[in-house]
C-alpha cells in the first residue's frame, strides 16, 4: 500500500444546534485507497462526507487534504473542491443543461479547458461510463442509473484526485445498480482515491481496501473487508451486519 | 371549520336582508312629501359639514327655506359630486343641488331650475405676489378640481398662456398643491375661493371672475317636474321677501360657468374625447412601461438579496418586502407625493412620485416571487455546482437562476398586468392617466356608464397586448 496520506481527519466534531452528529472522527486515507463507510441511517455518514468538501462547515477539528487544512477559513475552498469530486444519492444533474453541458460547465467556467477541449473530454468521459450516445440528450430523458453515471462523469471532468460517493446507488432501481457499481470498480482499478458511503456490501467486500463502521457519530470499528465482515468485534457492528446481510 | 363558515355566511345573509328590508320600508313610507336630494360632500360655501358635523351652506339653507315656503319635506344626502349627479340620473335620488353649473351639455340629461346663483372662475396663488396674472403662468403648473368650471376654464386657456394642468378630486388637495409649490396657481369658483381664504387657506385671488355662469337645482330630465316647479316658486318668494339675500350674505357672495357638445352615442363620446382619451392612454402605457422596468430592477435586486448567503442582506430583503407589500398602494402614493416633500422641502413631480410608488410596491411583489422562485430550485442543484468548485455567483448564474426564472415567468406576466391596472390608483396624485381622464370626462358630461365602458375596453385591449407580448418574449427566449 502507498504510504502517502491524502486525507487526514483529526477529531472532527459537527453539531447542528444541540444535535451532536459527529463526535470526534479520526481517519486517514492514503493515495489510491478505497475506503467504504458503512453504518445505520442517521449515524452521520453523509454529514462526514459533506464536511470533507465543506458543504458543511466543521464545528471543530481539522481536515487536511494534501497539506491544506480545509477547516481553516483562509483556505480557498473553491480551489480545494476542484480536486474533490462528489457524487450524490439523488444525482443532482443540472436540469437546465444537456448531458454534455453538465459535464462541460465547470471546466469551462473555471477556465480549466476551452470549449473544444471540454467537449472532447465530455465525449471521452461519456464513453468511459458507457453513455457516448447520450451526449446531446436532456437530463430528463435519462434513467436514474444513466443520470448517476453522467454525474460521475461530471465529477471526473475536473480531474479530481479524490472522489466522494454518498450512497450513489440507494435511489436506483435494482437493475441499474450494477452499471453504476461497474463504473466505480473501474475507477478504483485506475487508482482513484475514493471514500464511498454505501449499503452495497458486495461492493465493499470486493473493492474496499478498508471498511469503516460509523455509528452514533463515531468510528466504532475499521479494518479490511475480511476483518469487518468475517470477524466483527464490536457488538453494534455485528448486529448491523446481521440486519443488512440477512434481508 | 366548515360549520363556522356556514354560520358566518348565514349571519351575513340575515344582515343583508335586514338592510334590504329597512331601505325598502323607509323610502315609500314618507314618499308623498319627502324628497331625496343629493349634494356634494364638500363644496363650501354651498355645502359642507359645520363644526357640529351638520350640513350647512348656501345650497342647503336655500333648499330648506324653499321647502318650508312650499310645504314639502326634503332629505339632503351628501356624497361626492360625481356620485350625487349619477344618483339623480339613475333615479335613486330626486334632485341634486351641488353648486352645479347649468351647461348645455348637462341640459341633455337634466332639467334645471332657474339659476339661483351666479358664479365665476378666479385664479388664486400664494400671497407672496410672484404669480399675479395669467401671463406669468407660462411653463408653470396650474391645479384644478375635476369637473369644475375652473377646470374647463384652465382647459380653454392653457394653450394661450402656456401652462400645464394638474387635476384633483378635492379642493383641499388642489389648494395644498399650490401651497407646497407643486403648482403655481389654481382656478376655482370665486365664492368657493373666497370662503376658503376666509377659512384660513393662505392663498390670494389675483383675477376678476371669468366665465360667469349660473348654478341650478337639477332633476332627471322629464322627471320630478312638480319638485322643479316648487323650487322655482320658492326661489322667487325668497328673493321677494329678502330671505335669499340674508342667506347668501351669511356665507358671502359672487358669480358663474359653461360647456357644449351633445352627441351622446359611444362614437360621439369617443370623437369628442379622442384627444383626452389618447393622452390618458399614452400616459397609462408610459407609466406602466417605466414602472415595470424599475420595479423589475428593484424586485430582482431585493429578491437576490434574499437568497445570498448573508444574514444581513437577507434581513434587508425581508424588511423591504414586508414594508412595501404591506402598505396599500394608495397610502404609499400619497406618502411619497405629499409626505416626502413636507419632510425634505423638495417638491416631487407627480409622475416621478408615481413611478417610485409602483417601483416599491410592484417591486416588493416581484422580489417575493424572485426569492420564492430561487428557493424552489432543489438545494441539490446548488450543492452539486458548489462541489465542482464553482463560486456562489457562477453557480447562481449558470444553474440556479435559469431554473428559477422558468418558475417565475408566469408570476412576472401576472405582475406586469397588475402594474398596468395599478397605474389607475395614481390618479389620486393628479396624474392624468386613463382612469383620471375618465373621471374628468364624466364630471363634465355625466355619461358615467358609457365613458367607463370605453375606458374599460381600452384597459382590456392594453392588457391583451401586454399578454401577447409577454408570451411572444417567453417563446423567443425558449424558457
Ligand atoms: N443540515 C442539517 N441540519 C440539521 N440537522 C442535520 C442536517 N443534516 C443532517 N442532520 C442531522 O444529522 C444526523 C445525521 O444525518 P446524516 O449525516 O444524513 O446521516 P446518515 O447519512 O448516516 O444517514 C441526523 O440526525 C440528521 O437529522
Ligand atoms: Mg446519508
Helical residue percent of chain A? 25-40%
Major sheet of chain B: size, sense and barrel closure?
A: 6 strands, mixed
Total number of helices of chain A: 9
Mean pLDDT reading of chain B? 84
Rg of chain B to the nearest angstrom? 28 Å
Give the secondary structure arrangement, pairings included.
The complex is a heterodimer of chains A (247) and B (479).
Chain A: E1 5-16, E2 19-30, E3 34-38, H1 45-52, E4 60-65, E5 68-69, H2 77-82, E6 84-87, H3 99-109, H4 115-128, H5 144-156, E7 162-166, H6 174-189, E8 193-197, H7 201-207, E9 210-215, E10 218-223, H8 225-230, H9 235-245
Parallel strand pairs in A: 3-8, 3-9, 6-7, 7-8
Antiparallel strand pairs in A: 1-2, 1-4, 4-5, 9-10
Chain B: H1 2-29, E1 34-40, E2 48-49, E3 55-56, H2 58-70, E4 73-79, H3 81-89, E5 95-96, H4 104-107, E6 110-112, E7 117-125, E8 141-145, H5 149-161, E9 164-168, H6 171-179, E10 185-189, H7 190-198, E11 204-205, E12 210-215, E13 218-220, H8 225-241, H9 243-251, H10 266-272, H11 274-305, H12 311-326, H13 329-344, H14 350-376, H15 379-387, H16 392-422, H17 434-445, H18 448-476
Parallel strand pairs in B: 1-4, 1-5, 8-9, 8-10
Antiparallel strand pairs in B: 2-3, 5-13, 6-13, 7-10, 7-11, 7-12
Helix pairs in contact in B: 2-8, 2-9, 11-12, 11-14, 11-17, 12-14, 13-14, 14-16, 15-16, 16-18, 17-18
The structure holds adenosine-5'-diphosphate and magnesium ion.
Residues 45-46, 167 of chain A line the site of magnesium ion.
GO molecular function (chain A): ATP binding
Pfam family, one (chain A): ABC_tran
Domain ABC transporter (chain A): 7-241
Structural description of this entry:
The complex is a heterodimer of chains A (247) and B (479). Chain A is globular, with a radius of gyration of 18 Å. The model of chain A has no long low-confidence stretch (mean pLDDT 94). Chain A is built from nine helices and ten strands. By secondary structure, chain A is an alpha/beta fold. The longest helix of chain A is centred in the last third of the chain and has 16 residues, at 174-189. Helix content of chain A is 37%, strand content 26%. Chain A has helices at residues 45-52, 77-82, 99-109, 115-128, 144-156, 174-189, 201-207, 225-230, 235-245; strands spanning 5-16, 19-30, 34-38, 60-65, 68-69, 84-87, 162-166, 193-197, 210-215, 218-223. Chain A has a six-stranded mixed sheet, with helices on both faces. Chain A has a four-stranded antiparallel sheet with strand order 2-1-4-5, with helices on one face. Chain B is α/β, with parallel strands linked by helices and 479 residues long. Chain B has helices at 2-29, 58-70, 81-89, 104-107, 149-161, 171-179, 190-198, 225-241, 243-251, 266-272, 274-305, 311-326, 329-344, 350-376, 379-387, 392-422, 434-445, 448-476, and strands at 34-40, 48-49, 55-56, 73-79, 95-96, 110-112, 117-125, 141-145, 164-168, 185-189, 204-205, 210-215, 218-220. The longest helix of chain B has 32 residues, at 274-305. Chain B is elongated and about 100 Å long. The interface between A and B is medium-sized, with 26 and 18 residues. Bound molecules: adenosine-5'-diphosphate (ADP) and magnesium ion. Magnesium ion (MG) binds at residues 45-46, 167 of chain A. Residues 16, 19, 21, 41-47 of chain A line the site of adenosine-5'-diphosphate.
